[in-house]
Structures are given as C-alpha cells and as structure tokens.
Design goal:
mainly beta, Immunoglobulin-like, 2 domains, four-stranded antiparallel β-sheet, 0% helix
C-alpha cells in the first residue's frame, strides 16, 4: 500500500487504511496495523465520527495496538479500538477487549457522540464486558454492549444478552436515534428481554431484527436523583419523572420499541412530574427528557 508492503510475523493480522478519493483516482493516505508474533485477528466493524475511526472484531493471543497490549481470556476475544486520523497518519488512541474462554466475535459497530456500541456473538459460557458478566443460555448467544469514549480512554457502560438454547448470532448494528438496532440469526427459540421468538424449522436458522431501548433502570426515588430519570421502574399507571433544572421548560417524550412517539408532555424544569401511563400496552419504552440543551433518555418498563 502506498508503495509499501505490510507483513506479519505470524498468523493473520488486520489493518485499517485511509484512502483519499480524487474522483477518477484514489490514493492511500495512511495504513495502520496492530503487531503480534503469534496471533490472528480480523476487523469486521468500522465506524467514523469526525476525525475518529472506530474498529471492532476479534483476535487471538496477544496483540499490540500501538503502546497498548491486549491478551485474550480464552480462544478468541472481542476488541474495540479507536484511532485518531491525523490527515497523513493514523494512531491508536485506545483499545478494549471483552469475552470469555471460548470464541467471542464483535462484527457490529456503531457510534453516536461518546457512545460506542458493539454487537456480536459469544460462545463462552460466560463473557465479561468490563464489570458486567453475561451468561449464555445455549451454544452461542447474542450480545450488545455500550462503551463510553472519554477521549484518551474508554470504559464499558453496560452489556445485554439475548438468545436461547441454540446458535444465536448478531452480525449487524445500526442506530435509530439513540436506540441500537441489531440484526442476525437464531434457531429454535430466542429470548429478547421479555419477548420470545420461535423458529418453526428447528434445525435451520431464521433472521431477526431487534431494537434496544437505551438507558439505565431506576428502581426507587433515591436512584432517580440523576437528572431525567423516572421511578418506579417497572411502572404501572404512573411514573414520576425528575426533570433537570433549566432556564426553559422541559419536554417529556415516550417512544415505543421501534422509536415511534407514543406520548409527549410539557413539564416545568426542576420539578418531579407525574407521567400518565394509563392505556399503554405493557412493554419496554424509551423516556426522553429534554430541557434546554440537556437531553436524557432512559429505558422505562410499563407493566
């Protein structure tokens, strides 16, 4: 590339390259690859936000991403890395790993602001995503995880699993507003939160499309002290929403699992507001609170 050659000292290594599009022709601006003597790794997901490039995939053994080194917990682990595009050169900013003792893959990647979402499949009986550990219900399960990009570093904020007794996978990930949308395959039955889907053809795979409502569950008034959270959660009939202080009134919006607006109410800033849930079908919703330039979104379960 660009008159040069990439080489590995063992296994198969991934690369990330930037091409300059000149219309009728193109040229390579830079190419970056991790280093390892004995490993193999693959990039499956790419996302770009401004001058930041994010990649995800899987690796084995020990891999160096610039000055940072990852070692697998088992066979294959998931990685998510951030690169800085400096125009004529790229550099690794941070990298994070997740997984367990078996094969764990992360092909789905999406970015919105400081939120970095990764989706994939974990074959390990348990897989760790920061401080969160997921337990598989079968041969292979689906995961979706969110990282918070703090600039020079990142941490896992949460991870969710889905699936059943068979082989369940996630291949693609996109965002609809603040909601991750995941696509993949399953066989037999698969559980997505409180919803269960069934494949009538027991020994074949079927496709699925799933939408996750964002946010962290609040279960009491005390845990709702952060701006824009509601309680109780799950709620029945009415939920109390803590609206952040602002110089302008707030707007409360409730969205269903596919992002459609169900209800919207004006609310005074800096107050606890009763949000009417009467007549809503039980399920998972997203509650969005916007006051001035501040916006908070929380998952709300209606019983």
């Amino acid at each position: 590339m660009r008159g040069g050659t990439l080489s590995t000292t063992g296994g198969a290594l991934a690369y990330v390259a930037k091409l300059q599009d000149a219309g009728a022709t193109s040229s390579v601006s830079w190419v970056l690859t991790p280093t390892s003597a004995t490993t193999s790794m693959y990039v499956a997901g790419v996302a770009v936000s401004g001058s930041n490039v994010y990649v995800s995939g899987d690796f084995t053994g020990t891999v160096a991403f610039g000055a940072q080194t990852l070692t697998t917990a088992g066979n294959r682990d998931v990685f998510v890395a951030k690169l800085a595009d400096g125009g004529s050169a790229g550099t690794f900013t941070w990298v994070r790993a997740a997984g367990g003792a078996a094969d764990d893959l992360g092909p789905g990647l999406a970015v919105a602001g400081t939120s970095v979402y990764v989706a994939g499949t974990f074959v390990s009986s348990t897989a760790s995503f920061g401080s969160t550990t997921l337990t598989s219900a079968g041969r292979a399960d689906i995961f979706v995880a969110r990282l918070v990009d703090a600039g020079p570093s990142a941490t896992f904020a949460w991870a969710q699993r889905a699936g059943g007794p068979g082989n369940d996978s996630a291949y693609e990930l996109a965002l609809s507003g603040a909601m991750p949308v995941v696509a993949g395959s399953f066989n037999a039955t698969a559980n997505f939160g409180t919803q269960t889907i069934t494949n009538a053809a027991l020994y074949s795979e079927n496709a699925y499309l799933a939408v996750l409502a964002p946010g962290v569950l609040a279960t009491s008034a005390g845990s709702a002290a952060a701006a824009g959270l509601s309680y109780p959660n799950p709620a029945h009939g009415t939920a109390t929403v803590r609206v952040p202080a602002s110089t302008s009134p707030a707007t409360l919006t409730l969205l269903d699992a596919v992002g459609r607006v169900v209800r919207t109410y004006p609310a005074p800033a800096g107050a606890d507001v009763a949000f009417d849930l009467a007549g809503l079908a039980p399920g998972v919703y997203a509650l969005r609170v916007q006051a001035g330039n501040a916006t908070a979104t929380q998952q709300l379960v209606v019983e």
